[in-house]
């Protein structure tokens, strides 16, 4: 039995056709392999090719680079459906490439860089990562210290990144480096090819959740990269990073929508079958009401997420506020639903081997990655204060 979705005003027939194609990809390519990839701690490289051929890695990007020029609602569809494949790590591995690593390349890089890196990554021939976070600079992006010193026609890069998804296997990193003064204006983005001398992958990090995506430390010791690998203009990296956070945060919110849907569906099936004291669990009013609360939370999160997607697609000035609200709400809602569905499953929910404990672990990081919930509250409250000042 499946929860009936409320009809959505946001999606076109094309979006719905796309949803069907992602759903069959998930059934064919992901769900049967989810356990093996979670255990291996990575997805096979071939999956990027398969996803590239299906058109999933360049949804929003120009057709001349192999993309399909769609809007952020198509990204929502992709994320929601991929996240229902019982391996959030797999969904993370693919979106860390298509959205996180590629968005600045697509929007700010010159055609030469797009030809060399964006187009093959959209085809799934190259794996990309986004490298911003450092051991001493996570939320506070403006304090990154990885240095890129100009030397003739090259940048010479030294420093360290951590928590980099796809990092251990990436062919290139969209890398945030310090090219100038301390603070946000001294930051630039470069395409960093990982076959450069002096580059080393450190530890693969043993994460609580999303275990099918590989996340690791990266070290740079006097690595020479052509200055022509600069994305956009020198000193504007922070601006580019901030402008692309919207897409990253939307991805997390849309993952949460898909996961809530999947968990409620699994939970309803279980509550129909499992009996206690001579009644099905769904006959207890407490569980019927808790399902009512979960379904309502899901629809509220959907509404905020789709609205944020629409505003992002329109490059509306309110998009950052909407996407911050969507991510803040989505992280809290999916964590609450994961805990509730685990409780519903009693002892069974505590045993590895079903999607329940895996999803519970996977969503723990949703209030951390792509900007923590505290940072979302900062952005929202600053916008509120500004609005009040303007009144
Ligand atoms: C699984 C995973 C994958 C990741 N993938 C990537 C990746 O691919 N690329 C990449 O660059 N990074 C990646 N990250 C890093 C991620 O973006 C950071 O972990 C996140 O931004 C938080 O930074 P931090 O861990 O340094 O925590 P900190 O910034 O040190 O924060 C610690 C705590 O302090 C709070 N805090 C910080 N500032 C404030 C404030 N102003 N007001 C109130 N509270 C505050 C935070 O909310 C948090 O609760 C990943 C992280 C994880 C866990």
The general outline is globular
Roughly how many Å is the radius of gyration? 21 Å
Provide mean pLDDT, rounded.
96
CATH class (first level) name of the largest domain: Mainly Alpha
- Strand and helix order: HHHHHHHEEEEEEEEHEEHHHH
Hetero ligands: flavin-adenine dinucleotide
SS strand fraction: 15-25%
CATH architecture of the largest domain, by name, is Up-down Bundle
Unreliable spans are: none
Spatial sequence of strands, sheet with the most strands? 1-4-5-8
Number of H/I helices: 12
Helix content: 40-55%
What is shown here, in short?
This protein has 391 residues and is an alpha+beta fold.
Would you write up a description of this structure?
With 391 residues, the chain is of the alpha+beta class. The chain folds into three domains: 110 residues, Butyryl-Coa Dehydrogenase, subunit A, domain 1 (Orthogonal Bundle), CATH 1.10.540.10; 108 residues, Butyryl-CoA Dehydrogenase, subunit A, domain 2 (Beta Barrel); 153 residues, Butyryl-CoA Dehydrogenase, subunit A, domain 3 (Up-down Bundle), CATH 1.20.140.10. 50% of the residues lie in helices and 15% in strands. It has twelve helices and ten strands. Strands 1-4-5-8 form a four-stranded mixed sheet. A four-stranded antiparallel sheet has the order 2-3-7-6, covered by helices on one side. Strands 9-10 form a two-stranded antiparallel sheet. α4 crosses α8, α4 runs antiparallel to α9 and α8 packs parallel to α10. The model has no long low-confidence stretch (mean pLDDT 96). The structure holds flavin-adenine dinucleotide.
């Amino acid at each position: 039995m499946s929860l009936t979705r409320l009809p959505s005003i946001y999606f076109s027939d094309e979006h719905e056709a796309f949803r069907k194609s992602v759903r069959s990809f998930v059934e064919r390519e992901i769900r049967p392999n989810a356990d093996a990839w979670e255990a291996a701690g990575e997805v096979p490289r071939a999956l990027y090719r398969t996803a590239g051929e299906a058109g999933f890695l360049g949804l929003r990007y120009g057709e001349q680079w192999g993309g399909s020029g769609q809007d952020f609602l198509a990204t929502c569809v992709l994320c929601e459906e991929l996240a229902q494949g019982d391996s959030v790590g797999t969904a993370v591995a693919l979106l860390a490439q298509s959205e996180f690593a590629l968005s600045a390349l697509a929007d700010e890089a010159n055609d030469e860089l797009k030809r060399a890196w964006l187009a093959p990554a959209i085809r799934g021939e190259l794996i990309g990562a986004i490298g911003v976070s450092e051991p001493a600079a996570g939320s506070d992006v403006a304090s990154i210290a990885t240095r890129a010193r100009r030397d003739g026609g090259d940048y010479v890069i030294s420093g360290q990144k951590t928590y980099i998804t796809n990092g251990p296997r990436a062919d290139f990193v969209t890398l945030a480096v310090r090219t100038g003064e301390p603070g946000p204006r001294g930051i630039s983005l470069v395409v960093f090819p990982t076959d450069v001398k002096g580059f080393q992958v450190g530890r693969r990090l043993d994460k609580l959740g999303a275990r099918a995506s590989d996340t690791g430390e990266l070290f740079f010791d006097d690595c020479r990269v052509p200055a022509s690998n600069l994305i956009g203009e020198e000193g504007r990296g922070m601006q580019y990073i901030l402008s692309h956070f919207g897409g990253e945060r939307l991805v997390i919110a849309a993952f949460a929508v898909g996961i809530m849907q999947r968990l409620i569906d699994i939970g309803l099936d279980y509550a129909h079958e499992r009996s206690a004291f001579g009644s099905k669990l769904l006959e207890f009013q407490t569980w019927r009401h808790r399902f009512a609360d979960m379904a309502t939370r899901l629809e509220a999160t959907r509404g905020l997420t789709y609205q944020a997607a629409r505003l992002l697609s329109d490059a509306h000035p309110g998009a950052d506020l909407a996407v911050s609200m969507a991510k803040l709400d989505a992280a809290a809602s999916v964590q609450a639903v994961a805990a509730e569905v685990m409780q519903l499953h009693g002892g069974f929910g505590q045993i590895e081997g079903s999607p329940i404990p895996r999803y519970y672990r996977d969503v723990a990081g949703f209030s951390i990655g792509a900007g923590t919930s505290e940072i979302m509250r900062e952005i929202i409250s600053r916008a509120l204060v500004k609005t009040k000042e303007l009144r």
